Amino acid sequence: MNNASADHIRAVVRWYESSGHRTIVERTDLKHSAVLVPVIVAGDEPALLLTRRTDRVETHKGHVAFPGGMVDDDDRDRIHTALRELEEELGIPASAVEICGRLDDLSTPTGFVITPVVGLLRGLPEINSNEAEVDEVFQVPLSFFADPAHGEREFRHVGSERREIWTYKYNDRTIWGATAAVIRNLLAVLRTPLPDRQGESGHQQRTPSGERIP
Fold first, then answer.
1. Does pLDDT of 105 surpass 80?
2. Model pTM above 0.90
């Protein structure tokens, strides 16, 4: 995974969203939110940009998370939500991010639906964290999560549902729950072989905006 290029990440995530395989959760009884999954593609290998939430936020106090939050009524779509939250939390403007596409929607036991939006950063922009929400900002190489030795898996029953829970320890930080689930989803997508120029349906694969994947 340390040799995943920006071109590969862009192409695979775009294909995944346009392929029809992406899980979409439209339940109205859950609160809808979006997170930006920032992949830094400068240097020797790609890395994920993560935050640790303060103890003053309303939910998930002290958790490691991606920048994100609830969908506002005036948000155009989930991508808009993710980029807005990125700027509100870290001061990184939307213009610094190249959006690749969305991963699977994730429903949580706490009553949320999370839509992860993958974005590329060509280096680390200047960060001006919202001190009320963000306690720490740090990077983790994508290859760290790709190594099976670094993750611990367990199964928990939440009501009648059996859930797979992954936990990672990186230095003094614990990465688990929804954040770890999003990372696992990203890794699975990035390992997916791209189809030939003719997709499964016989049509040329296109990005969400309708462009042909080269």
1. yes
2. no
